Amino acid sequence: MQRIGFVILPDFQMLYFAALSVFEFANISAGKQLYGIELLSEYGGMVRSSLGTMTETLPFGDPAFDTLLVGGGTASVTASPAVVDFVQRGHRASRRVASICTGAFVLAQAGILDGKRATTHWIAARELKERFPLIRIESDRIFIIDGSVWTSAGMTACIDLALAMVEKDYGADLARSVAQKLVVHHRRGGGQSQHSESLKMDAKSDRIQTALEYARRNLKSQLSVQELADAACLSVRQFSRAFRAETGQSPAKAVANLRLEAARLLIEQSRHPVDVVATETGFADSERMRRAFVRAFGHPPQVIRNNARAEFAAA
């Protein structure tokens, strides 16, 4: 059984217990105890969350775990010397150490992130970079694996981090089973942006939302403005004007961004050949997709795929 130590700080964010649910459902899916979880704090006893609820914890003891997780809160963290010392010892004694959201500040205080790639909640990324300039901050990543050190963005990104750990420990089939039971998308790739295109295009009206949903379901199609306008039951002129007013971009630009987001997900997480990914996401051919990737991400699809696989394999 793998031991997971979860370090809780005062005013911790309750949502980060969702990461622990991933390990719980890994046990359920496997039908046996794969993971054992210990909630830890500096003094033990009850620790108050940002919501005001109390959680029982154990005091720091043996720092050796298979995974030592440090949770964050709703603001940047300054940990006590005792917490920093425990995390430093845990890093040396454990197989891997990880942070969720502003828990990265604790790893940074412990010197664990010096010279490493890391991420945190996008709101806290600038402060983390200013306070700890030796860290190679990648503020738009869902999670990052740099050797034995894992860091994730905030909020629901902790689920993706934990699913990646389950996949690394016991394989993709178990991670997929856990994701299905949790009713979440099977692990978003760490390279995905913290800001999805769907969130950026926050349409207000039902008709524009319907058109966007139609586009997401039919990326393989041409998705002309006429086709989208028909889905919204509007004329082309009415649709184009309303779409730009609600999303801040043209229908063509929105479709291009949705194609890129979907294609990157497939490149990072599937084994489909590049030309198949291009076809499935509506690019005319793999060369056009390659050029779009270079413009948007700075690298062609194969490099992004290789980087994602290398990062995961090295963990």
Protein architecture, described:
This protein has helices spanning 17-30, 81-93, 104-109, 125-131, 157-170, 172-182, 197-200, 206-217, 225-232, 236-247, 251-269, 274-280, 286-297, 301-314, and strands at residues 2-7, 35-41, 45-48, 54-59, 67-70, 96-100, 117-118, 136-137, 143-146, 149-152. With 315 residues, the protein is of the alpha/beta class. The protein folds into 2 domains: 2-182, 3-Layer(aba) Sandwich (Rossmann fold), CATH 3.40.50.880; 197-314, Arc Repressor Mutant, subunit A. The strands form 2 sheets. It has an 8-stranded mixed sheet with strand order 3-4-2-1-5-6-10-9, with helices on both faces. A two-stranded parallel sheet has the order 7-8. Helix 2 (81-93) links the parallel strand 5 and strand 6. Helix 1 (17-30) packs across helix 6 (172-182), helix 8 (206-217) packs across helix 9 (225-232) and helix 9 (225-232) crosses helix 10 (236-247). It is elongated and about 65 Å long. The mean pLDDT is 91. It comes from Caballeronia sordidicola.
Short précis:
Pfam families: DJ-1_PfpI, HTH_18. The protein folds into two domains: 181 residues, Rossmann fold; 118 residues, Orthogonal Bundle (Arc Repressor Mutant, subunit A).
Task: Considering the chains and any ligands shown, give keywords for the structure.
single chain; 315 residues; alpha/beta; Rossmann fold; Arc Repressor Mutant, subunit A; two-stranded parallel ribbon; 14 helices; 14% strand; elongated
